[in-house]
């Protein structure tokens, strides 16, 4: 039976007509003087009806979903694996993150300045200085579940460091650091040797970076300062409610409760802020400073982390840092040893 017929009523008739040959019928005029015979095929005798599909539409065009494949050499996948990848697997989650290939550095915010180009256009910039930044530890997906590089910066008195942390710094071949942070990387190609020093030339002039820092803390603030409320009227019978928030919700229509997410007075600032796709304006390896375009969150002398932008192409690694990158040996299959059996 064909998949498309005129309607449900004639689907059975069409099925029967396809099983036997088509016969022709003739119409003859009733007039005695004129005799005309016109052949009419059997298929034309079926009344014209609206087309109807006897097959459900969801079975006509099947929706094909492309299964992603494992990327060789990425997220701990060997080069020989080419199997379908589950979207809910940890490997797929790591591939969706799109972390940068390289680690980042820890710097401190020193202040703002301005650059003038040849046309006299003023561009505000922020100066960031790197203070004794070194690679401490590598985290792999096989041991820790993800790829990351632990970086330390600054200096700390060993008397003020606990013995477990002193042992960790000693194993990392670095002096006690004041600040220790982790930078997630995409795969094993971004791992570095512990003890390697990162300077300002880790970045290049003109590349795009992501800057993260904690913004300035304002303490407990009211609704007008925290959310920009306009406040209550200044006169006309208003007393002691000029900067008050006002109503926090309905009495009965909203469930006699304060809905989650209601903007109210509370602690303002002091949270992590990320500014992505910032251009590097200048790099000074002697002063160990990086100048980025625009403002950077946080107070003066605040801790700032700088890493390659996620949404941009990774830059070329400088030749001075190629020796510090770890090279992972490829897996090779060892030949099986022949089994020697003693003769009886």
Automatic annotation (TrEMBL):
GO molecular function: structural constituent of ribosome
GO cellular component labels: mitochondrial large ribosomal subunit
Keyword list, A-Z: Ribonucleoprotein, Ribosomal protein
Superkingdom of origin organism: Eukaryota
InterPro entries recorded: Ribosomal_uL3, Ribosomal_uL3_bac/org-type, Transl_B-barrel_sf
GO biological process: translation
SUPFAM superfamilies the UniProt entry points to: Translation proteins
Gene3D superfamilies for the chain: Translation factors (2.40.30.10)
Protein family according to the UniProt entry: Belongs to the universal ribosomal protein uL3 family.
Name of the protein this chain belongs to: Large ribosomal subunit protein uL3m
Taxonomic placement: Eukaryota, Fungi, Dikarya, Ascomycota, Pezizomycotina
Gene: MRPL9
């Amino acid at each position: 039976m064909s998949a498309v017929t005129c309607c449900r009523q004639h689907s059975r008739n069409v099925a029967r007509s396809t099983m036997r040959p088509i016969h022709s019928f003739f119409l003859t005029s009733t007039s005695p003087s004129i005799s005309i015979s016109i052949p009419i095929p059997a298929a034309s005798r079926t009344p014209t009806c609206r087309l109807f599909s006897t097959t459900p539409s969801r079975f006509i065009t099947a929706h094909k979903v492309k299964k992603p494949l494992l990327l060789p050499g990425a997220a701990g996948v060997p080069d020989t694996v080419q199997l379908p990848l589950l979207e809910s697997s940890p490997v797929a989650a790591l591939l969706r993150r799109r972390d940068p290939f390289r680690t980042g550095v820890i710097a401190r915010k020193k202040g703002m300045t301005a650059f003038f180009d040849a046309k006299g256009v003023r561009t505000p910039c922020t100066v960031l200085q790197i203070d004794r930044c070194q690679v401490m530890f590598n985290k792999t997906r096989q041991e820790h579940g993800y790829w990351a590089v632990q970086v330390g910066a600054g200096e700390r008195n060993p008397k003020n460091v606990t013995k477990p942390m002193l042992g960790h710094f000693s194993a990392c071949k670095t002096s006690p650091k004041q600040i220790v942070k982790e930078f997630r990387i995409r795969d094993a190609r971004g791992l570095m040797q512990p003890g390697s020093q990162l300077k300002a030339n880790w970045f290049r002039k003109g590349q795009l970076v992501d800057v993260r820092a904690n913004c300035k803390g304002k303490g407990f603030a009211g609704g007008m300062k925290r959310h920009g409320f306009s406040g209550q009227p200044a006169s006309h019978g208003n007393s002691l409610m000029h900067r008050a928030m006002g109503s926090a919700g309905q009495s009965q229509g909203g469930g006699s409760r304060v809905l989650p997410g209601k903007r109210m007075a509370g602690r303002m600032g002091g949270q992590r802020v990320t500014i992505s796709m910032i251009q590097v304006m200048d790099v000074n390896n002697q002063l160990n400073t990086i100048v980025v375009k625009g403002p950077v969150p946080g107070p003066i002398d605040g801790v700032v982390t700088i890493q390659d932008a996620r949404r941009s192409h990774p830059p070329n690694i400088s030749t001075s840092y190629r020796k510090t990158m770890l090279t992972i040996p490829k897996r090779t299959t060892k030949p099986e040893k022949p089994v020697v059996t003693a003769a009886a």
